[in-house]
C-alpha cells in the first residue's frame, strides 16, 4: 500500500505540475490569415474538415483533443501513413459536408477548416457564423483569402504548412513537437532538392486536378507549386496568384507541359483522367500527351498536409525517371 500510495502521489504531483505548466503557457496569441488570435486555453473538442487538415492534428499528436473529423471516403487511403492510429482513435463524424448542426452536435469548441475546405459563405458556414454560436475556428493557411478577392493564398505553400504546425503547437502547448516536425520536414525537402533535376533539365509540369470544359489546377499558392518546384520541375502555372483555380485549355497548350501530374481522388479515377487527357484532341500536340508522361499523386499529397514533404521526394524520383 505504501508503494501504491507513493506511486499515486507521484502521478498526482506530475499531473499538478503539468496543469500548472499549461496554465503558465496561456494565454497565447498567433496570427492566422492576417488576424491575431488569442487562446486562453487549449481547445478540447476540435472538429476538423478534410484529410490534410485532420492529419495535421494527428501529426502533432492531438487526437485526444478532437471531437472528430469530417471528410468523404474518396480522398485516398488513410491506412499507409505514420499517424494512421489517429484515424482509429478518432470519430469519423460524417462523409458529407461539414455544417453547423454537426459541429453543435459534436459539442465542438474549435473548427479547423479552410476556405473551400469546409468554410463557405454560400453555405453560411464561416468563422464569423461559428463565432455567433460560441465556437472558435482556425483557418488553414493555404486557404487564406488574398485581399478582398476570392483568390486564396498569401504565402508559399510549404510555409503555410510550417506556419500552421507552429501556430497549433503554441495553441495546444506542443511547441517542441511542432518544431521537431518542421525541422524534419525541412530536412526531407532539402534532401529531395539535392537530388532534383536542375537548369535546362527541369521539365515543364502541369497539375491536372479534374475538369473537362476547363481544367482545374494549382496556382502559386497551392501545395503542387512547391511540390513540383522543389522536386525539380518547372510549374507552368506559377504565375497564377491563387491556390486552386480553373484555367483555359488554350493556356495549357500554349505552355506545352512535358509532364502532367494527376491528382488522384474523387469518383473519377486517375486512369480515367489520363484516358481523357490522351483522347482530348486539342491537347494532341502537347509534349506530355505525345510522350505519355504522367505522374499520379494522391489528393492528400497535394493539398496542405504533413504528406507534402514525402510527395516532393517521390515526385523528384518520378521526374528523373520521366525525363529523357
Structure description:
This protein is α/β, with parallel strands linked by helices. The chain has helices at residues 2-25, 51-59, 85-89, 100-105, 127-132, 157-171, 175-195, 223-230, 249-255, 270-279, 287-290, 299-302, 308-322, and strands spanning 28-32, 35-39, 46-49, 66-70, 92-94, 110-115, 118-119, 136-139, 204-208, 216-218, 234-235, 244-246, 259-264, 294-298. The strands form four sheets. Strands 3, 4, 5, 6, 7 and 8 form a six-stranded parallel sheet that branches. Strands 11-9-13-14 form a four-stranded parallel sheet, with helices on both faces. Helix 6 runs antiparallel to helix 7. The chain is globular. It starts with a helix and ends with a helix.
Write the topology of this structure.
Layout: H1 2-25, E1 28-32, E2 35-39, E3 46-49, H2 51-59, E4 66-70, H3 85-89, E5 92-94, H4 100-105, E6 110-115, E7 118-119, H5 127-132, E8 136-139, H6 157-171, H7 175-195, E9 204-208, E10 216-218, H8 223-230, E11 234-235, E12 244-246, H9 249-255, E13 259-264, H10 270-279, H11 287-290, E14 294-298, H12 299-302, H13 308-322
Parallel strand pairs: 3-4, 3-6, 4-5, 6-7, 6-8, 9-11, 9-13, 13-14
Antiparallel strand pairs: 1-2, 10-12
Helix pairs in contact: 6-7, 7-13, 8-13
Structure summarized in a few sentences:
The chain has helices at 2-25, 51-59, 85-89, 100-105, 127-132, 157-171, 175-195, 223-230, 249-255, 270-279, 287-290, 299-302, 308-322; strands at residues 28-32, 35-39, 46-49, 66-70, 92-94, 110-115, 118-119, 136-139, 204-208, 216-218, 234-235, 244-246, 259-264, 294-298.
Q: Kindly name the structural category.
A: alpha/beta
Mean model confidence by pLDDT = 91
Indicate the percent of residues in helices: 40-55%
The count of helical stretches stands at: 13
Describe the main β-sheet briefly: 6 strands, parallel
The outline comes out as globular
Low-pLDDT residue intervals, each spanning 5 or more residues: 1-17
- Got a strand count? 14
Distance between the termini: 74 Å
Strand content: 15-25%
Order of helices and strands: HEEEHEHEHEEHEHHEEHEEHEHHEHH
**Alpha-carbon Rg, integer:** 22 Å
